[in-house]
Specification:
By secondary structure, the protein is an alpha/beta fold. It has a single domain, classed as Lambda Exonuclease, Chain A (Alpha-Beta Complex), CATH 3.90.320.10. It is 43% helix and 22% strand. Strands 1, 2, 3, 4, 5, 6 and 7 form a seven-stranded mixed sheet that branches. Helix 4 links the parallel strand 5 and strand 6. Helix 1 runs antiparallel to helix 4.
């Protein structure tokens, strides 16, 4: 473990959204803000700065630091709710937008639960995603299917970080919402034919 990098929980969501985005952020240390990311940062700052409190038999702990050494995971949870009567824990992740069509947010939430389980030796069967734009809280069942998908993404991210490799760009609808679009240059990269040209010259010389 000493010669392997820890995997930030956020990297799983980045990878599930776009493997190139994940590599740009976590391998190349590239970052740029746009309106969406800036607003998201403000939302998380507001959530994380809240004091712990207890209401209606539930303890609310904010900005909870977690890790799972066996999975190389490390990060900070926006909110953990603990039912005082049962001790049941529910991780809650805050997002600025609306529920997504993919499972990237759910994968990040599931990884948070895996950290809690390893740290505390308990079972966490559900979590929640709270979306600012729709003001909607979505309950997430951490079932075997989601866990299997999460373990798969963890393995893929680990391989990506260990390799230091950055996947090629692929321009599609995701790029419109990505703050790294100017750094990534997906249109230019995906249309780059220089390698084909070099290979063609090499064949002509042969």
């Amino acid at each position: 473990m000493s010669d392997q990098r820890w995997i930030p929980l956020s990297a799983l969501q980045h990878y599930a959204f776009c493997s190139r985005q994940c590599a740009l952020i976590h391998n190349e240390q590239a970052w740029a803000d746009n309106y969406l990311t800036a607003h998201g940062n403000l939302l998380h700052q507001r959530v994380d700065s809240g004091e712990p409190e207890t209401r209606k038999g539930v303890r609310f702990e904010r900005a909870v630091q977690v890790s799972a050494p066996s999975l190389r995971l490390i990060g900070k949870l926006d909110l953990v709710e603990r039912e005082l009567a049962s001790g049941r824990l529910t991780p809650v992740e805050y997002k600025r937008g609306r529920p997504k069509s993919d499972r990237s947010d759910e994968i990040q939430l599931c990884a948070q639960a895996l950290c809690l389980e390893e740290m505390l030796g308990i079972s966490v069967d559900s979590g929640a995603l709270w979306y600012w734009q729709s003001r909607r809280r979505v309950a997430v069942l951490l079932d075997s299917e989601l866990r299997a998908q999460t373990f798969g993404v963890i393995a893929q991210v680990a391989a990506l970080l260990d390799s230091g490799f950055t996947p090629e760009a692929c321009f599609d609808g995701r790029c419109r919402a990505c703050s790294l679009v100017e750094l990534c240059q997906p249109k230019w990269s995906s249309e780059d034919v220089s390698l084909d040209y070099q290979q063609a010259l090499f064949k002509e010389e042969q």
